[in-house]
């Protein structure tokens, strides 16, 4: 993410966050795999120091994961440009472009519309792409109003095929010798934008959407990588051509060597839908032994398997006490009599469609030359005493 490091940022304090801290503490759910008297055995491989604490704020600390819902003050936050401070009173959302009736809505207008919630695990597609970025994921209950009826009300014209979401944040982008100022922007096809699960979201885990996560309004598009979930929304524009921006066509582009009939094709694809993934979260220990706990997400999960060192894949137990279509699943495996010394723990998720999370040496991962869409199997190291 070298682009993140170079930018000037308007740093915003997290005072607002501290104020609502009490609110969501009561929302934290008891973690299903917790056992009496257990303690966490720390991983040996800790993440490297974050070189960009403004661009990447507050990563998930896997060992500390103790609730299905990630509390707001522990939720990661990514900013590519500045971090805008938006006053609710002066803010409004414009819906325009190729529509019959352009709309302008205040936050009160949006809150007066039908409310809808979704529990959705948001992951940055760069997560696990760098040694310093392994906690770019969190699970929250998002609330807002569905996007589709608003687009319907505006009346998308026949030739409208693309819906662009602009953030308030902006930065300088240089392409060849052209310097320009672009707002953060991402687009979706009209069909994808009309998905009834998409929300214009103003609430996170029962609290006002925190500034780092997009106050006053963000797009929540369940099933897509973090980048598609545009924060600090400013406007929505319907167009008649495909849309490009830094975050669609240059950055957040995966470059991969693919085999097509024995020939290598270098493919460039824009990051979009989430991919099948899992990770071990922590190993705990109490009087009755060791237990490996983790999460799986990115596609409907059928099974999760765990491998210790170079041993066989063993089936983990998926917890069904807290579940939602777009939320991560928590799994665990009791680790019988681990031998003292160093071990590796690897997990892989298997989707209901039969896909298997790829190993790091699978050509899908090994022949990927960019760090986006890093959904390869995660291996952690641990010392048992
Ligand atoms: N306006 C705007 N929206 C944005 C971003 C941004 O920099 N600006 N970052 C995106 C990225 S890369 C991710 S991973 C998610 C992260 O959401 P979060 O910060 O609430 O965790 O927001 C996305 N939406
Ligand atoms: Mo991201």
From TrEMBL:
Q: Which SUPFAM superfamilies match?
A: E set domains, Oxidoreductase molybdopterin-binding domain
GO molecular function terms noted in the UniProt entry: heme binding; molybdopterin cofactor binding; sulfite oxidase activity
InterPro entries listed in its UniProt record:
Ig_E-set (IPR014756), Mopterin_OxRdtase_euk (IPR008335), OxRdtase_Mopterin-bd_dom (IPR000572), OxRdtase_Mopterin-bd_sf (IPR036374), TAT_signal (IPR006311)
PROSITE patterns hit by this protein: TAT (PS51318)
- Give the matching CDD domains: SO_family_Moco_dimer (cd02110)
Q: Which residues form the Oxidoreductase molybdopterin-binding domain?
A: 80-244
Q: Name one GO biological process term.
A: sulfur compound metabolic process
- Signal peptide positions are none
- In Swiss-Prot or TrEMBL terms, this protein is called DMSO/TMAO reductase YedYZ molybdopterin-dependent catalytic subunit
Native source species: Rhizobium mongolense USDA 1844
């Amino acid at each position: 993410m070298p682009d993140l490091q170079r930018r000037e940022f308007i740093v915003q304090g997290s005072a607002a966050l501290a104020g609502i801290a009490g609110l969501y503490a009561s929302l934290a759910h008891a973690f299903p795999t917790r056992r009496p008297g257990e303690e966490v055995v720390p991983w040996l491989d800790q993440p490297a120091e974050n070189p960009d604490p403004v661009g990447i704020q507050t990563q998930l600390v896997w060992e500390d994961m103790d609730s299905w819902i990630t509390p707001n003050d522990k939720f990661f936050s990514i900013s590519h440009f500045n971090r805008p401070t938006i006053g609710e009173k002066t803010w409004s959302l414009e819906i325009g472009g190729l529509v019959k009736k352009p709309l302008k809505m205040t936050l009160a207008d949006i809150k007066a519309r039908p409310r809808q919630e979704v529990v959705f695990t948001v992951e940055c597609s760069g997560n696990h792409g760098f040694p310093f970025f392994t906690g770019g994921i969190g699970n929250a209950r998002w609330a807002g109003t569905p996007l589709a009826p608003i687009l319907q009300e505006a009346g998308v014209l026949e030739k409208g095929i693309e819906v662009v979401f602009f953030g308030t944040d902006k930065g300088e982008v240089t392409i060849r010798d052209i310097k320009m100022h672009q707002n953060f922007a991402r687009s979706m096809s009209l069909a994808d934008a009309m998905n009834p699960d998409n929300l214009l979201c103003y609430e996170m885990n029962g609290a006002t959407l925190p500034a780092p996560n997009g106050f006053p309004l963000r797009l929540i598009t369940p099933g897509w990588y973090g980048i598609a979930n545009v924060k600090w929304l400013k406007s929505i524009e319907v167009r008649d051509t495909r849309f490009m921006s830094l975050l669609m066509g240059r950055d957040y582009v995966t470059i991969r060597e693919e085999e097509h009939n024995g020939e290598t094709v270098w493919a460039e694809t824009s990051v979009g839908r989430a991919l099948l993934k899992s990770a071990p979260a922590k190993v705990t220990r109490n009087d009755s032994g060791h237990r490996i706990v983790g999460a799986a997400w990115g596609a409907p999960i059928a099974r999760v398997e765990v491998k210790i060192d170079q041993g066989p894949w063993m089936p983990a137990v998926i917890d069904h006490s807290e579940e939602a279509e777009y939320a991560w699943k928590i799994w665990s495996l009791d680790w019988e009599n681990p031998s003292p010394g160093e071990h590796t723990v690897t997990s892989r998720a298997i989707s209901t469609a039969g896909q298997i999370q790829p190993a790091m040496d699978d050509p899908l991962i090994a022949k990927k030359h960019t760090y986006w869409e890093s959904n390869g199997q995660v291996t952690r190291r641990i010392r048992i005493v």
